[in-house]
Amino acid sequence: MPDLTTIEDIQTVVDAFYDGMADDPVLGRFFADVDMEAHKPKLYAFWASVVFQTGTYRGRPFDAHLRLGPLEARHFERWLTRFAATVDAHFTGEAAERMKQKARQIAVIFQVKLGIPESDLIVDPSSP
Ligand code: HEM
Predict the structure, then answer these.
(1) From the CB of 73, is ligand 1 less than 6 Å away?
(2) Which domains does the chain have, with CATH numbers?
(3) Is ligand 1 within 6 A of the CB of residue 103?
(4) How far is the CA of 65 from the centre of ligand 1 (A)?
(5) CA dihedral 72, 101, 42, 66 (to 10 degrees)
(6) Biggest alpha carbon–alpha carbon distance for the chain
(7) pLDDT digits (tens, 9 = 90+) for 77-124
(8) From atom 34 of ligand 1, which residue's Cα is the shortest distance away?
């Protein structure tokens, strides 16, 4: 399997990650009223900036999550598991690992900002 190398590859991951998200048993309700097609350009820019440091994302990624409430550790567990599975289904290599690792790091920051207790934090759902 190839590694991620282009902005199109970022789009492949983002498209696959949100494809069917509204039907996800754990996360679906958060996305029920979100127009994903309108959101995707932001998400492409965000992930391109995270993985390839394109600097194309401007915004406060955490703020969008404050009004979804309440987000709990189990939501982050599901989000990270789904995200890693999506990356792994399409790409393998350094950039793919970087994308998953950054997602875990950002998810921890989000959880801490949301006040999820340290003992409940989901750091790496694939680890025992
Ligand atoms: C518990 C898990 C999560 C849920 C349920 C969730 C849900 C959402 C929803 C519904 C939106 C759209 C909000 C709106 O209407 O404006 C959104 C935006 C976004 N999410 Fe998440 N999210 C989660 C975790 C994450 C994580 C871990 C990351 C990054 C690693 C992330 C990155 C983003 C970004 C970049 C946006 C767009 C922000 C902007 O508008 O600039 N999310 N999320």
Answers:
(1) no
(2) 7-120 (1.10.490.10)
(3) yes
(4) 6
(5) 20
(6) 39
(7) 999 999 999 999 999 999 999 999 999 999 999 999 999 999 999 999
(8) 61
